[in-house]
Amino acid sequence: MQFTRDAVTGLVLIAAGAAMFAGAWGFDPPAGTAFGAGFFPKIVSSGMALSGLLILLGRERRSLTEVMRIDGRGVARVALLVAMIVLYTLALDPAGFHISTVALLFAATLFFGGSLPSALLLSVLATAVFHFIFYSIMKVALPWGLLLPVAW
């Protein structure tokens, strides 16, 4: 059976979106609020699944000329990216949101070809922005981990 790149991308986006939505379903909103920790993941996962569906529907209108070839290097890169996300998930509680997110963004930026200074700048600034949005605006309790003594 031959798959086009669009078919694989669409199916992966639909599956990932469905898995994320199912995972976010269990997050109950805190008392007195209309949304909680699962609100943003549900929006993102719905968008991912919808994008995957649109890619699949668009694929049906085009000819199936581009056949996807799976090479070892591509599989290794995807596996490494998945491993980084799994390690992030495992480190989130003990190390805390800030340390784990800086480490993940730093590694991912280098992984995708960013320079060392840009990886450092992006990881620190993006983590600060995420902290502000989730902790200060949306009132989501983020794990402090090792930084608990300096938590505010």
Automatic annotation (TrEMBL):
Pfam families, A to Z: TctB (PF07331)
Stretches that traverse the bilayer: 7-27, 39-58, 70-89
Source domain of life: Bacteria
Keywords: Membrane, Transmembrane, Transmembrane helix
Domain DUF1468, chain residue ranges per copy: 8-143
InterPro entries linked to this entry: DUF1468
Protein's UniProt name: Tripartite tricarboxylate transporter TctB family protein
Natural source organism: Nitratireductor aquibiodomus
